[in-house]
Write a structure and sequence with these properties.
Elements (H helix, E strand, L loop, with lengths): L10 E6 L7 E2 L6 E2 L5 E8 L2 E8 H14 L7 H12 L4 H15 L25
Length: 133
């Protein structure tokens, strides 16, 4: 079950895709979005308050997958929801589960190459896993 199913809906006030001029913190993985790196800046209206969320382009892939498959996501809860989908899909959609697991592992390594001569370098933004019908 998707976390967005039981959540109260917010009103989308717009989304921008700027390049960072200074360091920001991703609301999903918590890593630093470095100056020069693209990210998503989202503004929403929830319970009378304007909320601003900054999401690195890497985490936006998982967020967009949840949007396409679940009809939405909870800010700050994307990776918890992805983990639930990995377990749900393991036997039913093994290819999708594998690709979601790959995203979760990369996220746990702060989107950096873990070993080898390029260790510590930022991974490129991954492709979105296939949607489930």
């Amino acid at each position: 079950m998707c976390m967005a199913d039981d959540a109260d809906r917010s009103t989308d006030l717009g989304e921008l895709h700027p390049r960072a001029r200074k360091a920001h913190r991703c609301c999903e993985c918590g890593r630093t979005i470095d100056p020069g790196e693209k990210y998503t800046l989202s503004k929403t209206l929830f319970e009378g308050r304007v909320e601003v969320y900054k999401t690195c382009d890497h985490c936006a892939v998982a967020r967009d997958w949840l949007g396409a498959n679940c009809g939405g996501w909870l800010y700050g809860g994307v990776w918890e929801d992805i983990e639930e989908h990995i377990h749900e899909y393991r036997g039913v959609y093994p290819n999708v589960a594998r690709q979601l697991k790959r995203l979760a592992v990369w996220e746990s390594h702060d989107w950096k190459i873990a070993r080898g001569p390029r260790a510590g370098q930022r991974l490129p933004v991954p492709a979105m896993p296939p949607t489930v019908e």
